[in-house]
Q: What sequence folds into this?
């Protein structure tokens, strides 16, 4: 029997210092929904829309919004 491991597609949290995210990732949280949560920190929402970038207060991961900030924010 050949099983597919659903965890194989998850992003390892805190593995990188910089992540590029798109508008489809908003609202932005760290860790992101596609990340393993078992070895990370509590989920926090980051206000990235106004300036186009934000850093997590827990792990220091820096997120950059593709295309820059939103003018609507």
A:
């Amino acid at each position: 029997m050949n099983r597919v491991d659903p965890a194989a597609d998850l992003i390892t949290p805190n593995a990188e210092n910089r992540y590029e995210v798109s508008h489809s990732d908003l609202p932005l949280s760290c860790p992101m929904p596609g990340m393993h949560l078992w070895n990370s920190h509590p989920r926090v929402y980051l206000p990235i829309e106004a300036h186009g970038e934000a850093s997590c207060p827990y792990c220091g991961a820096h997120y950059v919004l593709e295309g820059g900030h939103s003018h609507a924010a």
In short: Residues 16-65 form one domain. Residues 19 and 63 are 5 Å apart (CA to CA). The mean pLDDT is 82.
